[in-house]
Design a protein that fits this description.
Helix content is 17%, strand content 34%. By secondary structure, the chain is α+β, with helices and mostly antiparallel strands. Helix 5 runs parallel beside helix 6. The chain starts with a helix and ends with a strand.
Length: 693
C-alpha cells in the first residue's frame, strides 16, 4: 500500500508539473521552494521553445527563445518535441572552506526536459531548469549521440526578454577586458560601441552593442535583476547583445580567432545561464545562486594551505613610478633589501602575506612588444633578488611570500613552464600566486574571454591545485562560481581596479565607482580590488592623480568589497603610524555570515560581516559623491550582550576632494538591537568593529 501511494504521488506531481500534448503546445511549470517565483517552459505547434519567469503576479522575464546555430549543420531552433519531463527538488546545506558565509543553503526545484527533433538529423538534448527562491539557473546538456558528434557552435540563441525600459548598470561586452567604468542608463540607452578604444586599456575588443556580465537591472515595477552565468567550463564566455527593437538581451559568445564560438564534442554541457531576482538590491549581494550551480569541491586531502589572508606588496610603488618592475630601469623595486623591508612592515602589522612583483627576468620586453613569446622566465630571479633568502626571511618573520607570474598575454609560454614554475613554489613552501595577462593574447585573434583562454585558465587552476597553490588571477576570465569546485581559485581582478587611480588619464576612478561594483561585478565572486591607500593625494609622486573618496571610505572597503586575499596596498612609509592601520590589523578576511543592511546601486551600500569562528562583527558603509545620513539597526547582534563599538568615520570637515584624510575614531558601548546613525560626507564612508564585552 505504501509503495502504491508513493508511486501515485510521483505520477500526480509529474502530471501537475508537465503537460505533454500529442498535437499542440507542451508546457512544463515549476515554482521556487517559497512559491514566489514561477517558471514556465513551453513548445508551440511549430516546436519552437520559450521560457518565462514570474514573481507572484509580476512578469519578470516574458517569453524568451532558446536554441543554437552550428557550422555545417541545421539550426537547432524549431521542430522540437518533449520526449520526457521530470521534476524534482533538493534541499541541503554545504560548508564553504572560506567565503562570505560558512554554511550555504542549496534549495531548489528542478525540471529536466528531454528534447528531440521531429525531423532529421533527429538531434536530442536536455534543458535543465533550477529555480531557487532568489533566481533561476538553466543550461543545455547534450548527450553523446550518433547524429551529433563533433560540433562547432556559431551562435547560441538564448534570450532574456525584458519588461518596460529598466535601469541598467553595465560595462561594454569587451572580449578582452572587464576594466571599464560601469555605466547607469536605461536599457534603451545602452551604447557599448561608444566605449571603444579606451586610452588606458592594454587590450580591448568590442565588436557589437553588447554588455558583459554580471549586468544588473532595476525594473519599472521595482524588482532588481542580475544576468550572469555559472560554471563556465570549456565554453566561450557569454556577453549579452542589446536588441532594443525586441526589448531583450541575447547571448553573444566570444569567438575563437577563426570565428567559431565553441568547439565541442558530445557529451557536453553549456554553462548555467542565471537570472537573480530580488525585491531589495542588497538581496542580490546575499544570494549564493552562482556558487550553488557549481560542482562540489573536487580537491582531496589536507587543504589547510588554502589560507585567507591580508597581504602587502612591492606593487603600488611601481604605479607611483617610485620604482620599476624591470632591473634595466635603474630603479628596480623587487630587490632582496626592499623585500625584507616590506616583510618587517608586514610582521609589525599582523599582515601575513607579501606579494613581490618584478622579481623574475623578462620585464624589459613585457608590454608594447608584438612578439612576447618566451620573454618571461618563471623560475629565474633577477640577480639583485635572492628568492630563497626572501622566502627564508619571510618564514622567520611569519610572513608568506606570494609569487607573481605576469604572462604578458603569452599563455603558451606560461603553459610550457607551468609544472616547473609550480614545482618551484611547492618546494619553497609558497602557497599563493598572482597571475597576469596584460596585452592582446598571443596567438593573434584569440581573446581573453574566449574558449581557448577559458581552457588555459582552467589548466592553471588545476596545476596550482596539484602543487598546493592558490590563485589570484588578474586579466582573468569572469568569476562564475568555480571557487566551490576548486577552492584554491580564491580571488581575481576582472574590474577597473585601484591602479587606475594612479595612472588613468581621467585622474582616477569616480566617487561612485565602488557603489556600482558592489551590485554588479561583486555578484560574480571575490574581487582583488587592492584597498589600503592612505596617501590619497599621491604626493609627491603623482599630484595630478588621486583616490576620489575619503580615508574612512577606503577603510570600509575591507568589508564592502569581498576578497579572501585582501591587500594593504600603500607604501610602508605612508601607512606606518597611521591610526587607521589599527583597523587594517583588526579586520577579518574570512566570514561566518554576511548581511547587507542597506544599499542602492551607484549610491551607497552598508554591509555587515561576522568573522569566521569568532564573535566580532565588522561593518563597512560607503557613499557616492553625495553626503548621506544612514541609520542601521544592530538587530543581527545578540540582544543580551554589550559590545565595544569602534568607529572609523569621516571627520566633520572631511570631503573626498578638499579634505579626504580627515577621520575621527570613536569608541563606545552598544547593545544588540541599538540603532546607529552614520553621517557620511561626500565620497565618504565608515568602518565599524563590534566586539562582545
Amino acid at each position: 500500500m505504501l509503495r502504491f501511494s508513493l508511486y501515485s504521488l510521483f505520477l500526480l506531481l509529474l502530471v501537475a508539473a508537465c503537460t505533454l500534448a500529442e498535437d499542440g503546445p507542451s508546457v512544463v511549470d515549476i515554482k521556487s521552494p517559497d512559491g514566489q517565483l514561477a517558471l514556465s517552459f513551453q513548445l508551440d505547434e511549430a516546436g519552437v521553445a520559450t521560457y518565462a519567469l514570474k514573481r507572484g503576479e509580476t512578469e519578470v522575464i516574458p517569453a524568451s527563445g532558446l536554441g543554437f546555430s552550428f557550422q555545417g549543420a541545421p539550426d537547432l531552433k524549431a521542430g522540437w518535441k518533449i520526449s520526457k519531463a521530470a521534476t524534482s527538488s533538493k534541499k541541503e546545506q554545504w560548508e564553504q572552506p572560506w567565503g562570505e558565509q560558512r554554511m550555504v543553503e542549496n534549495s531548489y526545484q528542478e525540471a529536466r526536459v528531454d528534447i528531440e527533433e521531429t525531423t532529421a538529423p533527429m538531434r536530442k538534448f536536455t534543458l535543465v531548469f533550477r529555480l531557487y527562491d532568489d533566481g533561476l539557473g538553466f543550461r543545455y546538456e547534450f548527450p553523446e549521440q550518433e547524429d551529433m558528434g563533433e560540433v562547432v557552435i556559431t551562435d547560441e540563441h538564448t534570450e532574456f526578454s525584458l519588461t518596460g525600459d529598466p535601469t541598467c548598470w553595465w560595462i561594454p561586452g569587451d572580449w578582452d577586458i572587464y576594466e571599464h567604468l560601469y555605466n547607469q542608463t536605461s536599457f534603451s540607452e545602452i551604447d557599448a560601441l561608444s566605449k571603444r578604444d579606451h586610452p588606458n586599456l592594454a587590450q580591448t575588443f568590442i565588436p557589437e552593442n553588447a554588455v558583459n556580465t554580471p549586468v544588473t537591472l532595476k525594473t519599472d515595477n521595482g524588482l532588481y535583476l542580475s544576468f550572469h552565468e555559472a560554471n563556465l567550463t570549456d565554453y566561450a564566455g557569454m556577453t549579452l547583445r542589446v536588441n532594443k527593437e525586441a526589448n531583450r538581451f541575447e547571448s553573444a559568445l566570444v569567438a575563437w580567432a577563426d570565428g567559431a564560438k565553441v568547439k565541442q564534442k558530445t557529451p557536453f554541457n553549456t554553462p548555467w545561464r542565471t537570472i537573480q531576482v530580488a525585491e531589495q538590491a542588497g538581496d542580490l549581494i546575499e544570494s549564493r545562486l552562482i556558487v550553488n550551480l557549481n560542482e562540489p569541491n573536487v580537491l582531496e586531502g589536507d587543504q589547510s594551505w588554502i589560507k585567507p589572508m591580508k597581504y602587502a606588496g612591492i606593487w603600488w610603488e611601481m604605479h607611483l613610478n617610485k620604482s620599476s618592475w624591470d632591473k634595466a630601469s635603474g630603479k628596480h623595486g623587487a630587490t632582496t633589501e626592499n623585500a625584507k623591508r616590506y616583510i618587517d612592515f608586514c610582521a609589525e602589522n599582523d599582515i601575513s602575506g607579501l606579494l613581490v612583483e618584478g622579481w623574475n627576468t623578462g620585464w624589459e620586453r613585457w608590454i608594447g612588444f608584438p612578439d612576447r613569446e618566451g620573454v618571461f622566465d618563471f623560475v629565474t630571479p633577477y640577480d639583485d633578488y635572492d628568492l630563497e633568502e626572501v622566502v627564508r626571511y619571510g618564514k622567520e618573520k611569519g610572513v608568506n611570500i606570494i609569487m607573481h607570474h605576469e604572462t604578458s598575454a603569452a599563455p603558451r609560454t606560461y603553459d610550457q613552464q607551468l609544472d616547473t614554475a609550480y614545482t618551484l613554489m611547492q618546494n619553497l613552501g609558497i602557497h599563493a600566486v598572482k597571475t597576469g595577462y596584460v596585452g592582446p593574447i598571443i596567438p593573434e585573434g584569440e581573446r581573453h574571454h574566449g574558449q581557448w583562454m577559458v581552457q588555459h585558465y582552467r589548466r592553471v587552476v588545476e596545476m596550482a591545485a596539484k602543487h598546493q597553490v592558490a590563485i589570484d588571477a588578474h586579466e582573468p576570465i569572469k568569476a562564475t562560481g568555480l571557487r566551490r569546485t576548486y577552492p584554491n581559485m580564491m580571488t581575481r581582478e576582472g574590474l577597473r581596479g585601484q591602479e587606475f587611480n594612479a595612472w588613468s588619464s581621467e585622474g582616477g576612478n569616480p566617487t561612485d565607482h565602488l557603489t556600482m561594483v558592489a551590485f554588479t561585478r561583486m555578484l560574480a565572486g571575490p574581487i582583488d580590488y587592492t584597498p589600503g591607500i592612505f596617501n590619497l593625494t599621491m604626493e609627491p609622486y603623482k599630484p595630478d592623480n588621486r583616490v576620489k573618496h575619503t580615508l574612512a571610505h577606503e577603510l570600509a572597503l575591507y568589508v564592502v568589497i569581498y576578497s579572501p586575499l585582501q591587500m594593504m596596498s600603500d607604501l610602508p612609509e605612508h601607512a606606518s603610524g597611521q591610526p587607521g592601520m589599527q583597523w587594517v590589523r583588526d579586520v577579518a578576511v574570512d566570514w561566518e555570515q554576511t548581511k547587507v543592511l542597506n544599499g542602492e546601486p551607484g549610491d551607497y551600500v552598508t554591509i555587515a560581516r561576522q568573522e569566521r569562528g569568532g564573535n566580532r562583527w565588522f561593518i563597512g558603509a560607503i557613499t557616492d559623491e553625495n553626503p548621506r545620513a544612514l541609520s542601521i539597526e544592530l538587530d543581527f547582534l545578540d540582544r543580551d550582550k554589550t559590545y565595544r563599538l569602534v568607529v572609523y568615520q569621516d571627520g566633520e570637515e572631511a570631503h573626498w576632494e578638499t579634505n579626504p584624510t580627515a577621520m575621527e575614531i570613536e569608541e563606545r558601548e552598544v547593545r544588540g538591537g541599538d540603532i546607529l546613525d552614520l553621517q557620511l560626507v561626500a565620497g565618504g564612508g565608515a568602518a565599524l568593529m563590534l566586539v562582545p564585552m
